[in-house]
Amino acid sequence: MKLTYNKSRVSEEEIVTIGEQLSSYAEHLKEVLQHGYEDEESSINLPSDKELMESVGAAVRDKNTTSLKYILVIGIGGSNLGTKAIYDALYGHFDILEPSRMPKMIFLDTTNPAFLAHLESFFDKEITNEEEVVINVISKGGSTTETVVNAELALGMLRKKYAGIMNRLVVTTDFGSLLWKIAEEKDITRLSIPEKVGGRYSVLSAVGLFPLAKAGVNVTSLLSGALEMRERCLSLDIGKNPAMASAAALFINYRRGKTINDNFIFHPELESLGKWYRQLLGESIGKEHNREGEVVHIGITPTISIGSTDLHSVGQLYLGGPEDKLTTFISAEYDKRGSVVTPEVFAGVLSGVAGKKPADVAEAILKGVKIAYEKKGLPFMEALLPDITPASLGAFMQFKMMEMMYLGQLFNVNPFDQPNVELYKIETKNILNS
Ligand code: PA5
């Protein structure tokens, strides 16, 4: 992945100053690699954890069947967004066009009555025996309302028909959570999440690895992409460290009133990757208090836009409205397959497209947008992936998770907690218990 930030309206001096400020933290991150899962940044140890791969591999083999059709992923927030990001990028976005490709993932996060009703009739029609399904219930804390409710309902639907369905269930949670204890009592297959690895940093743990491996994603490549990126993001030289440089551009722009980071993604299949990042940035940096406990009400608001769809919806706002955004254009080298446009039916309607491939048109639009942003003086960065493969996705996600750690330093907030999210969880539980 290549990060370009020379259009972010941040000077080289400013970048260098931030690099100096963050170098001791980069040293600290290197030390974290020696400490296993002791530190709050310990998610950076996941890509090189051999035991993790072994435990995930054993669970994958244990649930192996030749007739697997559906992987039901039950979890929310950090427990499913990363898995969905990778699945959608590689397969999910194309599911409707490839009905016979199996297995497919079904994500159950909100307690949406309509979706659950459809799911029940879908199970009745599509599943003929329990070996066609694997259910993965994922909850770090183990007692998230939506996840527990959805797990009970989905298992209730399947247990009516299949006596052995509990053998198709895997629970991924913190070792020792109530969910873990109950799964242990009932002899349900369990995978653990290291205590210090928070939900939104957990995609490269069993949380993401198990369902993705079951779906046929090459998780070894995913991890090797992440590992390679981890090395780059530990560099003390900010010019060679994309996580540090991107954090610097976001921070400096924030101080200049660019409180929104629009992630303008020019591949629709990466929309879920954008949503994964939205949680990562929103929850990690959006804080009421700083590390000293002072009230700061700080945060960058992450937005996701899809090119070129959203040029036809919010392009006007972005190019003409308030100048409150730093944009990150996210794209990958375009797939050059596909037929060329041969104007016949609508010949004469549009010039310049004859003989062009879809990739040529998509590239022209992206280039056109960047020129328009430049002419308007709107700051932007660019993250260019070489392709959309497990290795590139692993690298991108590792880059963003480490960017967040550097941003936490710059904003002087804890990027690993989410105390205010707990407020609604407590209120919901109070209402349900009243
Ligand atoms: O990142 C986070 O910590 C949150 O988004 C959680 O992942 C989310 O609230 C779900 O929690 P749990 O995994 O405990 O069910």
By helix and strand content, what is the structural category?
alpha/beta
**Which fold does the CATH topology of the largest domain refer to?**
Rossmann fold
The 3D shape can be described as globular
The whole-angstrom Rg is 23 Å
Mean pLDDT: 96
Unreliable sequence segments? none
Can you give a write-up of this model?
The protein has helices at residues 12-32, 50-62, 81-90, 113-126, 145-159, 178-185, 206-214, 219-232, 242-255, 271-285, 315-320, 358-375, 390-411, 419-433, and strands at residues 2-4, 70-74, 104-108, 133-139, 169-174, 189-193, 260-265, 287-289, 295-298, 301-306, 325-332, 380-385. The protein has 2 domains: 2-32 and 223-411, Glucose-6-phosphate isomerase like protein, domain 1 (Rossmann fold); 45-217, Rossmann fold (3-Layer(aba) Sandwich), CATH 3.40.50. β8 and β9 (295-298) form a beta hairpin. The longest helix is centred in the last third of the chain and has 22 residues, at 390-411. It has a 5-stranded mixed β-sheet, with helices on both faces. A 5-stranded parallel β-sheet has the order 3-2-4-5-6, sandwiched between helices. α1 packs across α9 (242-255). With 434 residues, the chain is an alpha/beta fold. 45% of the residues lie in helices and 15% in strands. The N and C termini lie far apart (51 Å). The structure holds 5-phosphoarabinonic acid (PA5). 5-phosphoarabinonic acid binds next to loops.
